[in-house]
Amino acid sequence: MRQQLEEIKEKTKKVLEENFNSEELNDLKVKILGKKGELTTILKEMGKVSAEERPVIGQLANQVRDELQQVFAEKQQEIKNKELENKLKEETIDVTLPGREMKKGSIHPITKTIMEAEDIFIGLGFEIAEGPEIETDFYNFEALNLPKDHPARDMQDSFYITPEVLLRTHTSPVQIRSMIEKKSEIPLKIICPGKVYRRDDDATHSPMFHQIEGLVIDKNIRMSDLKGVLLTFAREMFGTEQKIRLRPSFFPFTEPSAEVDISCVMCGGKGCRVCKQTGWLEILGSGMVHPNVLRYGGYDPEEVSAFAFGMGVERIAMLKYGINDLRLFYENDVRFLSQF
Ligand code: DAH
Question: How far is CA 159 from CA 137, 164, 325, 327, in A?
Answer without folding.
Answer: 11, 11, 24, 20
